[in-house]
Design a protein that fits this description.
The protein is α/β, with parallel strands linked by helices. It contains 8 helices and 10 strands. Helix 4 packs across helix 5 (141-153) and helix 5 runs parallel beside helix 6 (171-186).
């Protein structure tokens, strides 16, 4: 699903956020990318999510070489193959949950009626079938994050990228969101979770640890050696 080969991402001023990173993530994996602030994990998410192009190296997502795609084809790849979940939800205020989710499908070319049908199905999938017409301010933090997850999976993407998905939640709501992500993974979705929370990372089947723009440990590689 994800293949990074010697990927570097540098910025003006001599800042190297990723330094010759190589990583393979197979279809159906559930992986934590963990590290402190400044370790490069958010840049990793942006590169994997094709939101940012690397300065050098090769990025392949679901078989597509990102460097060979035009901006239009890259947008289409994101719209159909990748779902995003962020720490602070990014829901539109005063817009019902069903429309917040349906609007995430605008760039897929699907008609409005079908977008709303898929949105309702996605909200049902995350346990919010009874909250379709509720606006974000009428929902708890955990419910808002579930709406955000529903938006991310409404188009049934094979890859879900979650950036600190429990960072703005209390422990109970956070546990509920993690349970949901485990369920989505069990149904076949490849999920990569960016986190600084060592407890969350330890609860996942694979942990990739980053520091100073490099991968310093990978539990999958360690298991192969053992």
């Amino acid at each position: 699903m994800i293949s990074l080969i010697d990927v570097t991402r540098s910025y003006p001023g001599g800042v190297t956020a990723l330094d010759k990173v190589s990583l393979e993530i197979e279809h159906g994996e559930l992986v934590a990318i963990v590290g402190p602030s400044g370790s490069g994990k958010s840049t990793m998410l942006n590169v994997v999510g094709t939101l940012d192009r690397p300065s050098s190296g090769t990025v392949r997502i679901d078989g597509y070489d990102v460097a060979k795609l035009s901006d239009g084809r890259l947008s289409a790849l994101r719209a159909t193959r990748i779902g995003f979940v962020f720490q602070h939800f990014h829901l539109a205020a005063k817009i019902p949950a069903i429309d917040n989710v349906a609007d995430g499908l605008v760039y897929t070319g699907i008609g409005r009626a079908e977008r709303r049908r898929r949105a309702a199905a996605a909200l049902e999938r995350v346990g919010l079938g009874h909250r379709l017409d509720h606006e974000p301010h009428e929902l708890s933090g955990g419910e808002r994050q579930r709406v955000a997850i529903a938006r991310a999976v409404a188009g049934d993407p094979p890859l879900l990228l979650a950036d600190e998905p429990t960072g703005a939640l209390d422990s109970v709501s956070g546990a509920g969101v993690m349970d949901l992500l485990h369920d989505l993974n069990a149904a076949g979705t490849t999920i990569v979770i960016i986190t600084h929370d060592l407890e969350i990372a330890a609860s996942l089947p694979r942990q990739v640890r980053m520091r100073d723009g490099q991968i310093v440990a990978d539990s999958a590689a360690e298991a192969r050696v053992a």
